[in-house]
Amino acid sequence: MLSTFSTATWIGLIGTPLLIAAGQVLFKLASAATGELSVRNILALLLNPVLLAALLLYGLGTIIWIYVLKAVPLTIAYSFMGLTFCFVPLLAQVFLGEALTVRYAIGAAFIVAGMLAING
Q1: The total number of structural domains that make up the chain
Q2: Which segments cross the bilayer (predicted)?
Q3: What residues make up the domain containing 81?
Q4: CA distance 3 to 84
Q5: d(Cα 74, Cα 63) in Å, to the nearest integer?
Q6: Residue 59 near residue 26 (C-beta atoms within 8 A)
Q7: Is 15 in a helix, a strand, or coil?
Q8: Local structure of 47: helix, strand or coil
Q9: What is the pTM of this model?
Q10: Cα 89 from Cα 86, distance rounded (Å)
Q11: How many CB atoms lie within 10 A of CB 99?
């Protein structure tokens, strides 16, 4: 079934987890601007441009995902969301300087292998 997907569907299947992963990196960056939990700090956070960018990515990802689901059964499509567990550490390494380990690489390989087993 995977071979019958259009290019746009493939972009959505891969792009949505990538947008979600990028949003997670932005959430982490936005967290650096937070103070103690208070109404004032929450209101300031709601105006934080980094948080707004993260929410925009999540919203865009959601809209794309809805169109993906129009073309792909949920049981197949949702397995691609597992890619967020591969993309987040990669983006965190690039943009936040977080370390990648061999254990991460092995885990990511298992995730991709699982996707192939489910959808192959």
Answers
A1: 1
A2: 42-69, 76-96, 102-119
A3: 2-119
A4: 22
A5: 15
A6: no
A7: helix
A8: coil
A9: 0.89
A10: 6
A11: 8
